[in-house]
Amino acid sequence: MKKWPDKSNIRILCSLIFILLALPPGWKEITGLSAWLSPFIMLNSVILLKSLVWLNSLGLIILILCWFNKRWFCRTMCPVGLACDAVSKFKIRKNFSLGRIPRIGRWLAIISLGAALTGIPLFILLDPISIFNSFFSVFSKELSIVAILSFSGLPLLLLINIFFPGIWCARICPLGGLQDELIEIKAAFYKKRPRDINHKKAISAGRRIFVAWGAGVISGLIIPGWLKSSSASYFKPPASIEKNMFNTLCIRCGNCIKACPSKIIIHHSDKSDPVSWMTPEISFKSYGYCLEDCNLCGAVCPSGAISPFSITAKKDLFIASIEIDLEKCLLTNQTECERCKTVCSYDAILIIQGDLPLIMKPSVDFRKCVGCGACAAACPPLVIKMVPPVINSCYG
Amino acid sequence: MKRRDFVTNIMLTSGALGLGISCNRKIKPSDTENTHPEISNSGDGRTITEPARQIPVLAETDVLVIGGGPAGTAAAIAAARTGVETWLVERYNHLGGLWTGGLVLPLLSTHAIDKQKRWKQVIYGIGGEMWDRLKKLNMSIDSFNPVIDPEAGKYILDEMISEAGINMLYHAWAVNSIMDGNLIRGVIVESKSGRMAILAKVVIDCTGDGDVFHRAGENYSTMKYHIGLVHRLGNTDRINSKVPGFTKMNIGNPTPIPGVNWVNMRGKDDQDGIDVMNLSQLQMEYRKEIWENYEKIKQTPGYEEVFLLDTAPQIGVRMSRILDGRYKLTLEDSMTYRSFDDAIGISGAWTTILYNGKRVSRNERPMWQIPYRSLLPKKTENLLVAGRCFCFEEGLVEDTRIIGTCLVTGQGAGAAAGLAIKEGKKLKDIDTKKLKNLLLKQGVWFG
Question: Is the pTM of this model over 0.90?
């Protein structure tokens, strides 16, 4: 009899919690909280943005635990690891051995962090928790080819593991690689090594870190230039960082999509712009709007692509702008209506004298209109169109 | 553990904690703007003391209704039909208030959807009777939210008042409430005949501006809203759109009289509807604007024969005081089919709103019940409030200030007053089941 809680039992329990947290519809503030636990996402985000938020300390705590216990995260929490172990048991190829395959994960981790320093968290999308959460995020919205592509991450990974048992966790996973490197660094730090690591290995570790970091820093300078997304404009959640950086930092976990109470955040799926696939986009088509008392998308974003913001700051975060078709506006046709003014939480709509005497018309104060879409949703004849913001956000 | 390891661990942990504590990447707002200073329009603060004087008592009645708009008319008729003596006081020379005298001709909102999502007529009872009479006279158009002819409206309201045996007092302003502790003994009215008192067992405040409850010392909130002035244009059927130089002008919407259109005016924002100086200024401004607009229309090719029929006798104050009553009706109540034990009727909705972040268009708006408690002030025991100033939250204002709702609250208040007097009970103690039965008998629809 194993004693309980056994480590494998804890991992099953953690995986269940991870699944619960990742399921749509979201859990308000704790939607996809599990993604904050990944030290790889945390380090990439912190190094790229050069700033921290409170929830980053979750990843930091895990990092510290991994410092003291080798691969602590993999062994106690990782749901992807659990799934990989499970499918690896099929052992389709009985004579397969991992021995000759290089440990790519370590390289990926260090290159990614190096690149994050200069501009792009290169392999952040390979983070297992990101893959895990994006798998579940697809179910929150209708399926499209782009959604299926994102959905395929986890099944693909499991498929590889059936044919090459254990290859993901031991060789490819950058989160695992990061934890391995951490132990190496710890060894160098204490100037003594565990028995299984000899002097030669230590030198190679030092070289590897140096070369990988350098390669990362250089690629961080070069690659963002290649990954310019198309200039076609679409609406981003409030407090999104600058678009090109957003596309690289966003881990496509879908937390914001699940958390959004008015369900206006959808997966961006412009076929001509693969760089931005699966990133969040605001769609006003369902006549929802960005609620004046909500900042969940910023609060649940584990990578910091959407910055946390206070509710009172919403008046400075421009999502879009509006265009009113005055020809069809009820008020300019002398019908009793000012729904747009009534619903505007930012006092951006004024009713002013129209072009003809007696006729009043709505007018927009673009310094105040953040483009939340409330007026467009409330307009009885639906003549308010959402257009790209006239003013860019103060952030990003 | 060696000392050195221990120190290293401590340093690492505290460093990590330090990083964690400095977590404050969050976008905070820029400085908030100053609020606008309040501009007061009241005079220079000088006062005089009016000498005390004896005032003749014009009448002693059971129910006294102040204000002859849709609410007041419905209240007076409902009360009189229960068999109690009723007086109705109106400041102008017609009944119907803004509906007729304000030329706000559409009877909103006659319809809404029920729980099974069926589009249903909700305005029945006395309001429904008025509509039926107008239909018989061919003086209402459209099968829902009908537009009526104002003169026909005034006529049928007079007719209904006479049939109900109500004592009608035109050309008289209610200027004060006669208070006796928590009781209102009557109201002082001012007219060409001088100052007079009308004493009553129950007073119903249907002034729209809440003049009576204000004088009775009730708590209320005030709402500044846009004020307009409606006018009518004649010969709109003689517009020739084929002449060269014809351009489309705003000539309003049709009324039951062929060739006559009513033209709504939104008017200026944030106007004080109980400041007489403001009202006077707006009145002149608006009349000038309307005339200038009419001249412009007349000079446009094709519009030569159009003429300005009239500007409304009453300026269009949309909102002013709102009572702080025993129950504040909320937008949520109106959107969730909230059912009240003491419901006095059901009203509809006429415009699109946002509710819980979602668009709810006019055709999807639920019917909503109005509770009797929303008509009851907190202090005064024998006062009822009906019309646009009963107790509701501001989010519901578009649906409470309209004619249909005024007709429903008016009839509820009138019937409740009659019932309380007949049973010798206080207004707040009447049996709401009996009230509902009475209203059902009077034709009110409860779904």
Answer: no
